[in-house]
Design brief:
By secondary structure, the protein is of the alpha/beta class. Helices cover 36% and strands 23% of the residues. The protein folds into 3 domains: 3-242, Aminohydrolase, N-terminal nucleophile (Ntn) domain (Glutamine Phosphoribosylpyrophosphate, subunit 1, domain 1, 4-Layer Sandwich), CATH 3.60.20; 245-424, Glucose-6-phosphate isomerase like protein, domain 1 (Rossmann fold); 440-594, 3-Layer(aba) Sandwich (Rossmann fold), CATH 3.40.50.10490. Strand 13 (219-223) and strand 14 form a beta hairpin. Helix 3 packs across helix 4 (127-136) and helix 9 runs parallel beside helix 13. The structure holds 5-amino-5-deoxy-1-O-phosphono-D-mannitol. 5-amino-5-deoxy-1-O-phosphono-D-mannitol binds at residues 299-302, 346-348, 351, 354, 397-399, 488, 604-605.
Amino acid sequence: MCGIVGYVGDKKAASILYDGLKRLEYRGYDSSGIAVNDGFNIDVVKKKGKLEQLKGKIEDNVNGGTTGIGHTRWATHGQPSDLNSHPHSDCSQNFVIAHNGIIENFQDIKKYLLDKGHTFKSETDTEVIAHLLEENYENDVLSALKKTIENLEGSYALTILNNKEPNRIYVARKDSPLIIGIGENENFIASDIPAFLSETKDFYILEDGEFAVIDQDNINMYDFDLNPKEKEIYHVDWDPEMAEKQGYEHYMLKEIHEQPDAVRRLMANRVMPEGIDLEELNLEEEFLKNLNKIHIIACGTAYHSGLIAKYMLEDLLNISVEVDVASEYRYRNVPIKEDELVIAVSQSGETSDTLASLRKAKQKGAKVIAFTNSRGSSIAREADEMLLLKAGPEISVASTKAYLNMVVAFYMFSLFLAKKQEKIEEKEYLEMSGDLIKLPDLLDQVIEESEKLMEDKAKQYAKSENAFFIGRHTDYTLALEGALKLKEISYIHAEAYPAGELKHGTLALIEEGVPVIALGTKESVFEKTLSNVTEVKARGADVTAIVYNGAEDIEEVVDHVIYIPEVNELFTGALTIVPLQLLAYYTALIRDCDIDQPRNLAKSVTVE
Ligand code: M6R
């Protein structure tokens, strides 16, 4: 969802801004633009479409100034067009701004400004900010900015150039991420760290209700009352290469292959042969011992990780777990007691619905833990405690390695809690911890064994317009995630069902050649799933089965089988997901889809 970059330094800004925007492409966008200030002019170029189209315009139309801002837009107000692209300016061209977020009261402000004689060039909500700054300006930009944001309702990460101060950028943040990269004789602004990871590893994370004034050698930060603020530098330990493709055709494939290492990083110093150490969560022994209800809130793929956790926690601890899609949870009246735990799960840590749900749960007095891949994110900062997923930068819009680390984080947490509540025998606890340690090697094995078959199946399934994923128990939650992956990147209509539910309606859709991906990794319910597979097969479906090692009976019934290596039945999900991700990837590849940036989607969903 929209990306922002900014640069103040001693180098030509245009190419640095363009490269920064390129590295934020994964967030999803439909148009882009940059503005550069050389002390005489602020040149603005903007273009609908991919960044390559902007590039041609930059060379001929942008000055060699060393201060500038850039933006990739994901349209909300007004269709994607050159005019609606950011940056936007006021009537006098004194203020040029880029904005992520939504100004909810822009229509009222626009009416006020039109009455005052301002003229508008775009249909966006953003443009009102530039004109409001112009209206409030009396020779001091910071005061004008303070007055302006007092009138704004909604969310914003704002970057502002001012014609009268050629080597300075003003920024403000509320409910939309913004970071400042610290360099030598230069500073950077971005909505996400990968934009300038090659230039610096030191960042300030701007928080809600903060401004910053950024010069080449100075960064001054303030709260919204203009009191100066000191902030700690956030040092990232990611290598720039972690955010590059490293020879893979797409980030998604690279990230699928990175999964064994991502799980190793997640478990390091947390999962040992002698058990699980999650004391970093700082949860009191008494609280953990008496915990008998957990609420999990998340969106999309992160929500699917919560569904797996529900089965696992219920099986192992016999406690009640509610899993909610955050966009529903935030508007439901969910009773929560103070001795219950809320877990907010989010790769980006910026998903607006998850953040709103977290705030609601906190207001009700609940203890909230964040499972997130982004340490400096809003969700990480607002939760009481955090479990960092350590998947490394995930660039592809379709989440793979972050999902897997969420699932494994729930495995770890469930075992940790089972031990605290004395609901697991020592022998079983040690065996399960040992099985967790084996997961990365088993993941390597599953990738190796399933990739070619999935590539072949993709050639066949790429011609279909529908696909069905079925399974029971945690396999059903995997089916949901497999179907989401397939529809998200290949645009094939895919649905997931509990295997036993088909005969209550969906069986009517099964006809000759329809792809059905049947998951049967749970020995305890395998026979039941097998009879459902027989039902779809009898109606002509082409069935690919992913089953536990030892379920050879299925070979006589289905078209293709993938065996999942032996591991504790509660952990098979972490392995089963891999062939499903590969199937989605290769199907989208054959259909020539834009795999890393699927249509209409954004990596980080910071609006409702
Ligand atoms: O950053 P989050 O984990 O909060 O994102 C939640 C969803 O938007 C995300 O998982 C989405 O469903 C993915 N694109 C799926 O691959």
